[in-house]
Amino acid sequence: MSAPPFALLYTREAEKVIEDLRSKQQYAAKLKKVRKALRLLEQAGPRHPGLHSHDYQSIPGPDGATLWESYVENKTPSAWRIWWIYGPGDGRITVVTIGPHP
């Protein structure tokens, strides 16, 4: 782990979610929230209080890495989250997926 800013990398799944949000006008508000959360994750880091980042213990990350969860929304039904891991390498975060909290 290193200090912010971080370089964000995206899995194909995360890229697809963002593209799906971008392609439909009805998701414009959700896309704006996702972009804001990603910007905070990148520039301020996971410790930013608005992200409420914590390790997600229900599912292991890729290759056994610790999977982390950060808030896109809070106190709303099916609130959206960003799931991510540190790496590869120092100063990088890989966004695994983005979507509603299960």
Automatic annotation (TrEMBL):
It comes from the Bacteria. This is Uncharacterized protein. It comes from Prauserella marina. The lineage of its organism: Bacteria, Bacillati, Actinomycetota, Actinomycetes, Pseudonocardiales.
